[in-house]
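Q: what sequence does this backbone want?
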């Protein structure tokens, strides 16, 4: 299928954007830094750094605890941050739960379902209960964060873990999904955009298929929310997870989205202060979402900084961000495809993908490729990218991944591909090609 790029009012002003990121002005090994590892963690603009510092300097206090003016100011900033993030992804404020990161957010759902299977949560938690004969479905391309929690949930409940197989290029289709999802399926979990292949999942089609069988859907949105307009209500998913540090925000905070009625019924995975209505020596009653999931001291300054990151992206317009990354993805695919002896993982030209490219250089280990690029001032990711099963299916141990973002320039992409073309000659590799 041929992909038609989005149309917006104009391109991003890259010079202006890059001026907001002091990190990008440095040199790496004597070369201007080309930061092509935003798929792992994005850099932060001055506005985000300033927002967190200003909060800590003038408004820091224990949210939802006490009745002082300072507590009120802090709590207002904290909850306004939740509202800002909720609007950004098409959610209600009670549908956004703060987590440590996306991995933690996914585990909140998995652990809650395990508690429901153990009889916790009352009748309203029946929708989450799994028993022997039930099935959990993932894909063969999942990040470990969206695989291991479901492995453990299956082991705890007696459910069966099944997976949608990938094709030889590492992608999958709704037909592949239909071959696995069925009447026994209780949960389907998959990535919106693959962190290895850049494959964009047919989300609405899979949601329709899963819901037809009465199954819940959890979306790993780590590689979509930062890069393209994403509205969870329109997509129809039941849960979703994403991280702040991949979208110009700080470490230490992630987001769990869930439909309000589902979050109110899901047993909380962690319990303690701030989650309860009533506690006796024998039992506890829990608050509605989101407070029922936010035990203990909260990541308040991080939430404030994440909200500022959202406002920064809003000012750019996510449609323009998407268009910029579509152009970079096309350039990556075109440039890599013309390098002899290099294998590009994922779909080729003409198919939309995230703005990343994972490559294999036959005869040269990915770590050596990464070190060579590093010596040229180009920062990339090497390894299995927390997706060992996918690499194993493709006959690979590791790949080298370049990933772009709002501040990435076409010249940086060309620097990467020019250096990549030098790898095999540098290491004296001849013969076998991709």
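A:
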């Amino acid at each position: 299928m041929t992909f038609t790029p989005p149309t917006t009012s104009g391109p991003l002003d890259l010079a202006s954007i890059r001026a907001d990121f002091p990190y990008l002005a440095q040199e790496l090994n004597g070369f201007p830094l080309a930061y092509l590892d935003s798929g792992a963690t994005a850099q932060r603009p001055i506005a985000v750094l300033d927002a967190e510092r200003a909060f800590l300097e003038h408004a820091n206090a224990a949210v939802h605890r006490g009745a002082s003016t300072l507590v009120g100011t802090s709590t207002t900033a904290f909850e306004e941050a939740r509202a800002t993030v909720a609007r950004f992804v098409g959610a209600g404020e009670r549908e956004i739960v703060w987590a440590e990161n996306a991995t933690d957010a996914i585990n909140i759902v998995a652990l809650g379902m395990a508690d429901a299977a153990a009889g916790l949560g009352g009748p309203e938690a029946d929708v989450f209960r799994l028993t022997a004969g039930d099935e959990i479905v993932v894909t063969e391309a999942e990040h470990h964060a969206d695989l291991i929690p479901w492995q453990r949930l299956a082991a705890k409940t007696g459910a069966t873990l099944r997976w949608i197989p990938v094709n030889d290029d590492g992608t999958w289709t709704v037909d592949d999904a239909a071959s696995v999802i069925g009447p026994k399926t209780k949960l389907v979990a998959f990535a919106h955009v693959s962190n290895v292949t850049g494959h964009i999942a047919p989300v609405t089609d899979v949601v329709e298929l899963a819901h037809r069988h009465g199954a819940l859907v959890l979306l790993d949105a780590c590689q979509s929310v930062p890069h393209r307009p994403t509205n969870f209500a329109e997509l129809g998913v039941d849960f979703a997870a994403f991280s702040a540090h991949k979208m110009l925000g700080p470490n230490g905070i992630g987001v769990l989205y869930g439909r309000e009625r589902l979050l109110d019924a899901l047993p909380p995975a962690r319990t303690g202060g701030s989650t309860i209505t009533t506690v006796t020596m024998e039992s506890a009653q829990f608050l509605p979402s989101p407070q029922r999931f936010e035990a203990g001291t909260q990541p308040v300054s991080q939430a404030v900084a994440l909200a500022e990151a959202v406002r920064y992206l809003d000012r750019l317009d996510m449609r323009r961000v998407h268009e910029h990354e579509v152009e970079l993805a096309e350039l990556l695919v075109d440039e890599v495809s013309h390098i002899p002896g290099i294998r590009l993982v994922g779909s080729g030209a003409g198919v939309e993908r995230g703005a990343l490219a994972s490559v294999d250089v036959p005869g040269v280990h990915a770590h050596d490729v990464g070190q060579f690029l590093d010596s040229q001032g180009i920062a990339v990711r090497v390894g299995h990218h927390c997706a060992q099963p996918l690499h194993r299916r493709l006959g690979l141990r590791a790949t080298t991944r370049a990933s772009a973002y709002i501040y990435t320039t076409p010249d940086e992409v060309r620097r990467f591909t020019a250096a990549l073309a030098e790898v095999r000659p540098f290491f004296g590799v001849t013969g076998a090609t991709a």
